[in-house]
Every structure is written in structure tokens, then in C-alpha cells.
Amino acid sequence: MAQNTRTVPAGTPTNVTQKHNKGGIGESILRPDGTLKVTGEFAYSSDMWHEDMLWGQTLRSTVAHAEIVSIDISEALAMPGVYSVLTYDDLPAEMKNYGLEIQDTPVLANGRVRHHGEPVALVAADHPETARRAAAKIKIDYRELPLVTDEASALAPDAPLIHEGRDDHHIGHVPHPNIVHRQPIIRGNVDEARKRADVIVEGEYTFGMQDQAFLGPESGLAVPSEDGGVELYVATQWLHSDLQQIAPVLGLPPEKVRMTLSGVGGAFGGREDISMQIHACLLALATNKPVKIVYNRFESFFGHVHRHPAKLYYEHGATKDGKLTHMKCKIVLDGGAYASASPAVVGNASSLSVGPYVLEDVDIEAIALYTNNPPCGAMRGFGAVQACFAYEAQMDKLAAKLGMDPVEFRQLNAMEQGTIMPTGQVVDAPAPVAELLRRVKARPLPPERQWESAGESADVRALPGGLSNTTHGEGVVRGVGYAVGIKNVGFSEGFDDYSTARVRLEVINGEPVAMVHTAMAEVGQGGITVHTQIARTELGVTQVTIHPADTQVGSAGSTSASRQTYMTGGAVKNTCEAVREALLEIGRRKNGSYHPAWATAELLLEGGKVVTDGGEVLADIADILEDEAIDLELEFRHAPTEPFDLVTGQGNGHVQYTFAAHRAVVEVDTELGLVKVVELATAQDVGKALNMLSVVGQIQGGTTQGLGVAIMEEIIVDPKTAKVRNPSFTDYLIPTILDTPTIPVDVLELADPKAPYGLRGMGEAPTLSSTPAVIAAIRQATGLEINKTPIRPEALTGTL
């Protein structure tokens, strides 16, 4: 059962506009889409339908690296019901590649495939089964090429180049063309600091490739329009980024590609890149008919990027009294065949590689590789997850070597407000790292061997192995582990991060109604709920309408980087404030001569009325507006950031930092290698909880994803063929309700004065520290040195 506590220390500023409007910020109002989703009535993108629509199908490569010798589409075209078959030669525009930052990804393979599952051809037919069978009739002759699958093969002097003739802006700063991006961070003098260390620990860590595993597969509907353009209804994370990549390869101006967000069944970073969007549009324009594409689960594993697998090499030193002296690390991320978000992931991994600790002497290098493995990009935690796994293992090693309590050791070295990051950036908001650790440690531990307390009616679900009934408690030992992490919020390194909101206030049926229009992708995070709460708070209205997200309003940026409540919430807040001032100006013009408070008092909007700060009602909003409407669209930007120096890594690269800590309690059957996570307690500072119910849900969800990668989740890529071996939920395991433990949540609200309402982005932080906490608990239970995630039974039993 979920538990949560809420703490606002005395005297802590909350930076909240104090208005008393029902359903406003701070209340745990229910999500408008919640009931529809749990009852199966919510319309997802895969549910869309259009009269006379066709079905699209993608043919993907069966090998990871090969030259395409020939493609024969004649049999596919001859099938009844097939309307179109497209290959690279049929692409209509000069631009034939796309990408988030580096346009290195071909719409369809051009003479060469670089990873297993790369799109090669498209089919449109009048039935999905016809499209599938037609795609299977396309004959492709491949001549396989040597594979690049790891650091050694990628960086060898004679390594095959994944992308020959690179001309992107990173190529001049990397030592090898198979390195997408490299970011060093140098501060202080590690060689001198090492001399002060009484103990030094080293570690080599391996982090597996994790899938976002969203339940709603990639899907969308493209409808050709009369002006030669196309309407695209799609599940995505960033409408305007998609638009910027789609329009050039269609050969259309952006205004002729009109995008509308359809129902999204989860994302977690996996919808930040293009999947089926361009393909559906190409087929719709080629056939002049609506075309729907829906991936099945198998294809979904190839249709989006994954979390970067990583090798991490760390060295830490400490004095005998427990103070850290230095840190040196190298982080190698496998970016796969195309760049996706790898450059930004490198920036995050390097700049957050020290964790939430005070360290003055560091030598850091992070790189992302081009390989023939599946492309990797954005996933919840974005580079900070892999680093947290490694540095928290190092903290446990140091504490053990010094004979110190692992929590007290962390607290002794914990950063706080005013700490200088290795990049030279000052942490300018509360950083309650030590307090978060104190809270998770102080929580009472769950009873041991709970299955025994039930006597003969013991619930096997409380045992490792669960309903498989593999053990009755023999060989089961308990372990407790701790971890804490640091994550940045928002886009970094000088990116022009902004969001747009349009707000309209008018009277409908005698009642003031606010309409909020943004391009924010609601992917399950609850943004539409928060926008409703903000509008109610700032405009004093009860009725708020959320306009469907589309590209007819300015960009809201991506629903990623824990940024949407900060950025688009900030845009809604700012625009509502401007609408409020416009309303009050109308009120002053109409009523100012009747009451002096219009000119002198601080005026608020509450309960559909204009009131003074003393509570005196001056007018109804409806009476002020009458037949007028106020309609404004404004942009919101956070404080500017700057790129990290490419030699020293110095720079104010991040907007905001967020922190979470976890304590994991596990029970391990050491004979069978089975793990039961009994409890995964967490404490997190969220700045200001605009909706506590949503906050707790986000924290528990992120915690569960971290649990998954600790003990079960990994995409297995065959090192000999670079082919994915487990592209299904039968073989790629994710936590179910039976695997998910009790997750008590302790929420702190220490306001960031720079942020709207003092809030902190909080969706990603719990994904960081949950993984190393679980692994630390397993280490304590078994006595094994575990340096790889996920941890599998054979690793615990020594039967690898």
C-alpha cells in the first residue's frame, strides 16, 4: 500500500500566489483522463479510424550491417489490395534524412543498413494483413559487412566507419569518427588530490540496454489535405520537433504539415524521436488516401530508441575520516547506429557523474559511440541513471573500506545549497541531500520473513519467486541498501528552451470560462490536470477547457527532461497573469470611478469575482467581460544556460537540479538466485507539489522503472550478429503488480525561487537512485560484488 508524508519546514518560502480557488494548485484533483483509461474507454492513437483509409506496413532489415545489393518489389505490387510500395528511390524531397540534432537517420535505407530492424521499404494496402503479406514478398539481397558492436571494435584504427564523411558539428571535437560526442570535465588536480587519499577504490560497471516499454505501441493516422499538404494525428512527445523533421523530407513547407496529438499510451523518452510519422505521411501523399500505421509489439522494439547501455570506469579516493578527495571516471555509452539524443545524453552523464557530492578534484570523460547495435537515445533519467548506478556503488565500497555506515558516509560528503559542481556551476537552490537520506533511513523497517507470520496459510507472493512456488523460505536472507541521486531539469547547454501557451477568457452561458491551448504532449504525466489547476488559481474561474494539443499554437518543447510543469506550466501561469491584468484593466476602465480600490488595492480573482486582498468583492468577472474575450499567447523561458567547454567542461549548463533518495529492502533466495523486493522507500524534494496525488504517482512510477532495470529489464543484443534476441514482453520482462513492492513516499517542498510556484521538475529523479539501492541491498544480502545491471539469478548462484 502506498504511503506518503508531506513536509514543509517552518519558514520555508513557497513562492505561491495565495488564492483560494477550488480545484487550484496544491489540491489533488483527479485527472480527467483517469477513469477513461482504467475503464478502457480512452481513445489512443491506435484507435483512430478514417473512412476509406489504408494500412501501412514497414519492411525492416533482417541483418545489422549490410550493403543492399538489390530490392525487388514486383510481387508485392502485384498483390490485390496493395496501393503503393515505396523505397529510398521514391522519396520526394532532396532531404532524405532526419534526426533530433544530427540528421543522420535515413527515412528508408539507402544502399546500406546499419542496424537490425532498420526500415527499408513501405507498403500501403486496404487491409493490415494484406500490407503485412505484401511486405513479406519484397525480396532484398544483402551483402553483409563487418560489425561494430563495442568500444574495442568501434575505436580500432581499422574500424569500419558507421557514418563515412561526417560533417556534423561534433566531428571536429572527437578523436575517432565512430564517437558521436565527447565531453570531458576537468576541475582541480586529481594527481595531487590522490596523494591525500588514505583509501582508493576502483570499479568497472556495466549497465544494460533498457526499453521504455510503454504499453501503447507507435501509431498514427496521416490524412492528405486538399492543399497538397497532410494532416497527421500521432502519439508523440514533441509535436514541433516532429514537424521540423517531417516537413523537409516530404518536400512541404511546415504550414502544410498540420499535426495533432492523439491519445498517448506512455512514452518515457521513446517517442521523442521519429518512428512511423514520416512513413505514414509518405504513403498518404503517394496514394492520396488516409493511411494508418500501428506497430505490433515486436516491431515496436525496433521502432524506437532505447536507454544507452554503458560501461563505466570509476576511481574514488577518501581520507580516513571519510571525506572524498577526488574522482576519476570514464563513461562509454553505446549510441547504436544513429545519433538520436546521444550528444545531450553525454552532456548529462558527464556533468552529473559525481553524484550529489562535494568533490573539488575530478577528471571526467564521457563518450557515445556509433555502433551497429540498436539506436539509443532519450529515456527517463537521460544519462544520469547509468552514472548513478556506478557512483553509488563506489560510495558503498568506500564506506565499507573505511568501516563507516554507508548513509553517514554519504551525508558527510553531501552537497548543499552553494556547492560548486564540477562544471563550476553553483547549486543556487535547496539541495537537501543529507536530509533525504536521513528520512529514508529513519523509516521503520518492514517485518522480516513476513510469510512465516501467516502460519500454514503463508502467501507465497511474499517469497522470492512468488507464485512460481519455488521456495518456502529456506536459504532466504534479507538485505538493505541505500542510494541517492541528482538529476537536472529542463534542456541544458545553451539550448533555447521555451514553451508557449495561449489562454482565452470569455463568458459562456453567463459564466467565465478559460480555454488553455498548448502543444504540450500529454503522455501520462498529468500536465492537462496541472494546466487546469493553474488557470483556476490565476483566473479565479471554475470552468477550464483544455484545447487539443496541435501545431497551430507555438511550441511547448518536449515532454521530457522533467520540464513540462516548469516550462509549459510556467507559460500557462504567465499567460494567465497577462489575461488577468487585461481583465482588470477592462474593469478599471468600466468601474474605476465607482470604487477607489480599483486604483489602489491589490486585486485578485476568486470564485468568478474580482476581490481586494481584504476580501471585498468589486465585480463579477462575467459582468466585466460581457461580450468581450481576452485571448493572449505568450512564451516562457527559464534562465539561460551555456554549453560546457569542450576541453574543461566548465559552464553553467543546467537550469535546476532535483534530488531523490531510496532505501531498498530485499529478500534473496541465495540457493536459487531469486529476489523479492519487499519495500522501496523514497524521499524527494519537489519544491512545490502542485498536485500531490500526481506527484506521488510519478515518484512511484519512476521508482518502479528503476526496480525493473535492477533485476529484470534488458534488451539482449547478440554480440556476434548485433541482432535483438528478445523483442517481446514474453522475453523482455517488466515489473508487474506482483513484482512491485510497497513504495512509501516522503515529499519535501523546499521552493526554488526561480521556478514557477517554486516547483522542481520531479518525474525522472526517482528512476536514478532506486536501481543502485536495490543492487546495494542484494549485495548486502549475498556478500557478492555486483557491478552489472540487471542482476540475474545465475549471477547470484554462481552458475553463469
TrEMBL record:
Where is composition skewed (Polar residues) in this entry?
1-18
**Segment Disordered: which positions?**
1-26
Record carries keyword Nucleus: no
Question: Where does the record place the Aldehyde oxidase/xanthine dehydrogenase a/b hammerhead domain?
Answer: 39-146
Query: So what EC number does this one have?
Result: 1.17.1.4
Among Pfam families, the record links this protein to: Ald_Xan_dh_C, MoCoBD_1, MoCoBD_2
Q: Which InterPro entries match?
A: Ald_Oxase/Xan_DH_a/b (IPR000674), Ald_Oxase/Xan_DH_a/b_sf (IPR036856), Ald_Oxase/xanthine_DH-like (IPR016208), AldOxase/xan_DH_MoCoBD1 (IPR008274), AldOxase/xan_DH_MoCoBD2 (IPR046867), AldOxase/xan_DH_Mopterin-bd_sf (IPR037165), Xanthine_dehydrogenase_dsu (IPR017609)
Q: Which UniProt keywords apply?
A: Oxidoreductase
**Which GO MF term does the entry hold, naming one?**
xanthine dehydrogenase activity
For this entry, the protein name equals Xanthine dehydrogenase subunit D
Organism placement in taxonomy: Bacteria, Bacillati, Actinomycetota, Actinomycetes, Kitasatosporales
The encoding gene is pucD
